[in-house]
Design brief:
This protein is 48% helix and 9% strand. The protein is of the alpha/beta class. Strands 1, 2, 3, 4, 5, 6, 7 and 8 form an 8-stranded mixed beta sheet that branches.
Length: 478
């Protein structure tokens, strides 16, 4: 009879275990570390790029790199999870669970127990494009060429690439051009520019760094959210699930989350052992935490973000101006302008364009509101790995399409989907509307403000020195 009770108890305990690594419908939106396939949910069935009576004549693309390895300092922190994993296994084997209803299941534990740090993730390959990131970048280039074969031709003269001359961006360029030109890519001398100040100007803007990038107030709403009951409960529940009799430090929770989402971006099919620590609701809260950070650091939370992001909008408009109203286009003039950048500039550019703007700002104390749950600002879909913003200029035949009112049209695509903009039809906008919307922005777009703080400081130093000298001289005379 005792054995029967023991078996029943074991069966009940097994039934209470929570297996999170084998969910039928897992949550796969991980902010800026989201795999492209999870963010764009496949190419739409409607062929938005086929505009009756119109021909594409210029292609502009702002594209983020594919999945990459962590930076060197992140690698050091993530490796510490090895010791933490050992503590989880010990907790499970010792039965250290305050609430057996929440503990991870045996199969999840086995995944964690078998996990080992990949020796390739070292300082040598820190920050570099992963194999999956390389392949996804190739596939994206192939998809664009299939969509616009008349623009994205095999002629290298039809392109101008802009990117930073570092390992990550250079490999992104290599993967993308291989997708376009195949084996010929390596032998082509493709026109390119490597001016980092053009590709990511925020890194050379002291005013932005002072007022936004390094300003503690930028993260104030994130810190408010982290202090709320729903966030603290998340930490407690994760700690319970892993068998700790105290709340695990937030930094350790974030390391687990970081490795979870990196794993899913590196291999979209494989189960990540570290994702088994999080429920669907946990992942949504962590996603919102990053949205609060990006909203204020790169989005509508600061007016300076629009002032920096306008540079790419200006680049796009200037590029298209070369084609509008021209009967003939020089053969050597590029048909495609392609820039490789990072998540920050992609978000800043979308902000400058007025895309994904919510009716109310995101805050740290309204997580459960309907506005937040249906928010437009979601970094997972706006700036995943390989996230991109494309604008295509079309020249249309008069009366060729009854829905097109003007000769020139611009189609905006975000991650290959039509970008919703007021006044446009499924991403397709009249050129006059585009000029009216962005004309003032482009006209006033310059980065003169970036060094204004430095200049003012210099003036103050000179003034202070002069006053000090005058006072000292007056005292001596007295």
């Amino acid at each position: 009879m005792i054995w029967l009770y023991l078996l029943l108890a074991l069966a009940v305990a097994k039934g209470q275990e929570t297996c999170l690594s084998v969910e039928d419908d897992p949550y796969l939106l991980f902010g800026t570390k989201t795999a492209y396939i999870f963010a764009n949910l496949g190419v739409p069935s409607t062929r938005a790029h086929d505009v009756p009576g119109c021909q594409p004549i210029a292609f502009w693309l702002l594209s983020r790199h594919g999945s990459n390895n962590p930076e060197a300092n992140d690698i050091v922190e993530l490796q510490k999870l090895g010791d933490f994993r050992n503590n989880i296994v010990t907790n499970y084997k010792n039965g250290n669970f305050r609430n057996t209803n929440q503990r991870i299941c045996t199969s999840d534990l086995n995944l964690l127990e078998q996990w080992q740090w990949n020796p390739r993730l070292n300082v040598t390959f820190a920050g570099d494009l992963t194999a999956d990131g390389y392949m996804t970048t190739q596939q994206l280039a192939q998809a664009w060429r299939q969509r616009f074969p008349g623009l994205l031709t095999s002629s290298r003269h039809h392109y101008l690439f802009k990117y930073v001359n570092d390992q990550l961006s250079s490999n992104t360029f290599k993967a993308f051009t291989e997708g376009l030109f195949g084996d010929q890519a390596e032998s082509f001398d493709i026109p390119k520019e490597n001016d980092e100040k053009i590709v990511r100007p925020f890194k050379f803007c002291p005013a932005w760094t002072k007022d936004v990038g390094d300003n503690n107030d930028t993260l104030s709403q994130l810190h408010i959210f982290e202090s709320k009951r729903e966030y603290q409960e998340m930490i407690s529940n994760i700690s319970l699930r892993l068998g700790f009799n105290y709340d695990v430090q937030k930094e350790i929770i974030l390391r687990m989350y970081q490795l979870c989402r990196y794993n899913k971006a590196w291999d979209v099919v494989k189960i990540s052992p570290w994702c088994s620590a999080f429920t669907r609701e946990d992942l949504k809260r962590l996603e919102y935490a990053e949205d609060l950070e990006t909203y204020y650091k790169y989005g509508y939370g600061s007016a300076l973000n629009k002032d920096v992001g306008c540079t790419h909008v200006k680049d796009m408009m200037n590029f298209f101006e070369n084609y509008v109203g021209k009967d003939e286009i020089p053969q050597q003039q590029p048909r495609a302008m392609i820039q490789f950048t990072e998540a920050a500039m992609l978000l800043m550019t979308l902000t400058a364009m007025g895309a994904h703007q919510d009716t109310a700002p995101l805050t740290g104390d309204n997580y459960h509101s309907a506005n937040v749950q249906s928010r437009k600002w979601t970094a997972s879909k706006m700036a995943p790995f390989n996230g991109n913003l494309a604008a295509v200029l079309y020249k249309c035949t008069q009366n060729g399409n009854f829905q097109v009112n003007e000769e020139y049209q611009v189609l905006f695509l975000e991650n290959e989907h039509p970008l919703s903009l007021p006044g446009c039809r499924v991403g397709l906008c009249d050129w006059s509307l585009v000029k009216n919307r962005f004309g003032e922005l482009v006209k006033n777009c310059n980065l003169d403000f970036c060094n204004s703080a430095t200049k003012i400081s210099s003036v103050n130093v000179i003034l202070f020195t002069f006053v000090a000298f005058f006072v000292r001289y007056a005292v001596i005379r007295i």
